[in-house]
Amino acid sequence: MPGRFYHDGKTTEKVIALTFDDGPGRTTPAILELLKQHHIRATFFMLGDQIEEFPDIARQVAAAGHEIGNHTYVHFDYHLAKNAAPQRLVHELAQTETTLQRALHDPSFHTQIVRMPYGYYNKTWLLPTLKEHGYALVHWSFGTDWKLALPADEMIRLYIAHAKPGAVFLFHDGGRHREKTLAAVTAVIDALEKKGYRFISAEEMFGGENAKDVQRSTSDVKGEPSGGRF
Ligand SMILES: [Zn+2]
After folding, report:
1. pLDDT of 26-36, one tens digit each?
2. Does a structural domain hold residue 226?
3. 71, 145, 172, 213: which one is catalytic?
4. Active-site residue, 177 included
5. pLDDT for residue 216
6. Domain range for residue 18?
7. CA of 218 relative to ligand 1 center, distance in Å
8. How wide is the angle at C-alpha 189 spanned by C-alphas 184 and 185, nearest 5°?
9. What is the mean pLDDT of residues 38-43?
10. Which end of the chain is more exposed for a tag (fewer CB within 10 A), N or C?
11. Active-site pick, 21, 145, 173, 213
12. Cα 96 to ligand 1 centroid, rounded to whole Å
């Protein structure tokens, strides 16, 4: 629903939303293959400039039936924005929509959800701006794959430890050094399926009449660290 802020599904079912940011990129096809093997529909928050670089991979994501969300055009850190931030964001989101429409050969394609770079969030202008333009904001409940110094087995352990009904996991299919992410996602899916979890898209977690959204204080929501492009 436009203008809403989602980061945890309110459910007792063992479902976890899988989300992938910063793509499309070179690791995306391998992620798609993994999701296909497990019959998982996930959500990909794409960057406009990456879609320009890998339009065929953006098409593969759409053709596989996954949900596509808007992660802005150039991954600007809005924590650094001073004036005109809303206008800048609206422009970036629109640029990404146009790029997606071209890549997918679908002039009517439009995303409905936004994930902000670096987990940027505020109540003053962001949510009203997104609402005005028909977007909901989707954050995450856990993610750690952008920490390149973290060994893969520790990364896997942390994701598994943060599994819970309604969790929203953040991974990255775009950017550098994503082979560790691929290994982690593979292991995390295997381990959690064995524990009875099912993986779904953000749309399935939050969308429709049975939207399992919950709005709460944002004090415990951590953003991505600034400095990297993850
Ligand atoms: Zn990002």
Report:
1. 999 999 999 99
2. no
3. 172
4. no
5. 37
6. 5-206
7. 19
8. 25
9. 98
10. N
11. 21
12. 14
Q: Which pLDDT value is given to residue 208? A: 53
| Half-sphere CA count of 23, side-chain side, radius 13 A | 32
Ligand 1 centroid – CA 79 distance (Å): 13
Judge whether 135 lies within some domain.
Answer: yes
Cβ distance 15 to 38 under 8 Å?
A: no
Domain of 101: which CATH number? 3.20.20.370
Q: Is 186 exposed, middle or buried (0-12, 13-18, 19+ CB in 10 A)?
A: middle
Instruction: Say yes or no to pLDDT of 221 above 90.
Output: no
Residue 218 within any structural domain of the chain: no
Catalytic residue check, 172: yes
| CA 175 to ligand 1 centroid distance, Å | 9
Instruction: Take residue 55 and report the two structure tokens written for it.
Output: 């339009």
Q: What is the pLDDT of residues 135-171, one digit of tens each?
A: 999 999 999 999 989 999 999 999 999 999 999 999 9
The domain total for the chain is 1
**pLDDT digits 0-9 by tens, 177-217:** 798 999 999 999 999 999 999 999 999 999 854 444 433 33
Residue 221 CA, ligand 1 centroid: distance in Å: 15
